[in-house]
């Protein structure tokens, strides 16, 4: 007789009391084993769920504490103040501001500095206002029948918008704004006389660089800026700029 029919008949005989006692006991043992198997599986599932929850809590706690003590983290938003020191390269093309025709002119450079305040609306966007002094670039020039030296002074105010992309501890940023400035030019001819001029202007300013924040508040930036100065397009400056984020 097939095995399935035998099992069904044995179970029916057990219910009707016709099966031998040993067969009934064996069937009861089998049901007990099955019940204990289901109970053990349920216990194992509960233990695995508890262990998983504990591991997740440990990982979450580690991440929170690591973020709290991360020396490269900084406030996500808020004000900041800073200063910068750099090298300004003046790519002067002519001296039309003082009415002098130039046949040969030498690019010049000088130390520059700036002081700035800003506000970070989020880690990705901020606005900044700076007072910028590009120093006193000066060098030699030649004209038709004469030569001499020129001296240029540029000081002014620069508002800008800065976009930042955090990459781990580093910040890659770009900026764009305007430079409102006073331009003073003096030309000293080797023959004796001199000419002077003063103009107030505004020109487009843009640039970018890399930054890193230490101790949670001290931000250090290495940046490059370019200023489209009239008669001196291509003039640029490299800055090292520390700032403090509140």
What does this structure look like?
- By secondary structure, the chain is α+β, with helices and mostly antiparallel strands.
- The chain has two helices and ten strands; from the N terminus they run ααββββββββββ.
- An eight-stranded antiparallel β-barrel has the order 1-3-4-6-7-8-9-10.
- A hairpin with a 2-residue loop joins strand 3 and strand 4.
- The longest helix has 48 residues, at 21-68.
- Residues 21-25 and 61-69 have low confidence and may be disordered.
Give the gist of this structure.
The chain is of the alpha+beta class.
Tag the structure with descriptive keywords.
single chain, 246 residues, alpha+beta, Porin, 8-stranded antiparallel barrel, 2 helices, 10 strands, 54% strand, elongated
Compute the CA-based radius of gyration. Answer: 40 Å
**CATH structural class of the largest domain:** Mainly Beta
Number of strands: 10
- Give a quick account of the main beta sheet: strands, pairing sense, barrel closure: 8 strands, antiparallel, barrel
Class by alpha and beta content: alpha+beta
The helix/strand order is HHEEEEEEEEEE
Distance between the termini: 88 Å
- Mean pLDDT comes to 79
Task: Indicate the topology.
Layout: H1 3-16, H2 21-68, E1 78-90, E2 104-105, E3 108-122, E4 125-133, E5 138-143, E6 146-167, E7 170-189, E8 194-214, E9 218-229, E10 232-245
Antiparallel strand pairs: 1-3, 1-10, 2-5, 3-4, 4-6, 5-6, 6-7, 7-8, 8-9, 9-10
């Amino acid at each position: 007789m097939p095995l399935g029919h035998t099992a069904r008949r044995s179970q029916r005989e057990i219910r009707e009391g016709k099966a031998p006692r040993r067969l009934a006991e064996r069937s009861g043992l089998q049901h007990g084993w099955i019940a204990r198997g289901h109970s053990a599986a349920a216990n194992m599932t509960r233990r695995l769920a508890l262990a998983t929850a504990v591991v997740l809590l440990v990982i979450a706690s580690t991440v929170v504490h690591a973020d709290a003590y991360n020396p490269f983290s900084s406030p996500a938003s808020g004000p900041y103040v800073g200063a910068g020191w750099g090298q300004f390269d003046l790519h002067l093309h002519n001296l039309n501001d003082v009415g002098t025709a130039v046949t040969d002119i030498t690019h010049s450079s000088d130390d520059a500095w700036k002081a700035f305040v800003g506000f970070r609306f989020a880690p990705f966007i901020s606005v900044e206002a700076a007072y910028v002094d590009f120093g006193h670039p000066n060098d030699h020039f030649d004209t038709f029948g004469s030569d001499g030296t020129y001296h240029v002074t540029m000081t002014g105010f620069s508002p800008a918008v800065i976009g930042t992309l955090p990459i781990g501890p580093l910040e890659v940023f770009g900026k764009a704004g305007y430079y409102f400035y006073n331009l003073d030019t003096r030309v000293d001819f080797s023959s004796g006389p001199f000419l002077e001029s003063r103009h107030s202007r505004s020109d487009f300013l843009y640039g970018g660089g890399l930054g890193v924040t230490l101790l949670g508040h001290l931000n250090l930036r290495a940046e490059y800026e370019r200023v489209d100065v009239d008669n001196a397009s291509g003039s640029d400056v490299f800055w090292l700029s520390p700032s403090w984020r509140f």
